[in-house]
Write a structure and sequence with these properties.
Blueprint lengths: L1 H9 L14 H19 L3 H21 L9 E2 L4 H6 E4 L2 E4 L2 H24 L6 H22 L4 E2 H27 L1
């Protein structure tokens, strides 16, 4: 495990989560904005501020996935599931080894990017506070972003991004349930 952590933090800058961004500062700013939005959401109970935070998150999401990119020459689609994981990690000599940091960062970034989505959607729209509504909504939002990236050549359509984003939305929804349960106990 120490070897894996050392590989992640020493060899490459960990904040370069999105390979297309080349580690530009706007990626850090947008991620910081998303984290700040979530912290403000935790601290407030105001419905109006919650809507502002949700809209801010959605803007940050679009900024990271579309507005920080420049169009490429071709439309690319990666349709084989779990390719990013196979390209990022390998099981060698009885341990997990990072073989491509950028693929791993992209995978982690795509999961983390949609955690707020899974948390904020049921918070902003209480009628959607059900697993069978929130998770498909995360999948559809991810599908919309991936399709837009493909059509506009601002990225490639990657089925692994859909999987990672949906997992992120599921993690966010589970966090929402944990917070809800904590409030009910109090």
């Amino acid at each position: 495990m120490q070897s894996l952590i050392r590989q992640l933090f020493v060899n490459d800058p960990v904040w370069t989560l999105f390979p297309g961004s080349k580690g530009n500062i706007e990626v850090l700013l947008a991620l910081g904005f998303i984290v700040l939005s979530l912290l403000l959401l935790k601290l407030t109970r105001s419905r109006n501020l919650m809507w502002l935070i949700t809209l801010s998150y959605l803007f940050g999401l679009l900024f990271l996935t579309l507005f920080t990119r420049t169009p490429g020459p071709n439309r690319i689609s990666l349709l084989v599931p779990f390719t990013t994981i196979r390209n990022a990690l390998d099981w060698q000599d009885g341990g997990l080894r990072v073989i491509d940091h950028m693929n791993l960062y992209a995978l982690i970034g795509n999961v983390l990017l949609f955690v707020p989505f899974g948390y904020l959607l049921p918070k902003a729209f209480p009628k959607t506070a059900k697993f069978y509504l929130t998770i498909p909504a995360g999948l559809l939002a991810s599908l919309a972003i991936e399709t837009t990236q493909y059509i506009t050549k601002l990225g490639c359509f990657d089925v692994d991004d859909l999987i990672a984003n949906t997992i992120g939305a599921a993690i966010g929804y589970l966090l929402f349930l944990l917070v809800l349960r904590g409030r009910k106990k109090r």
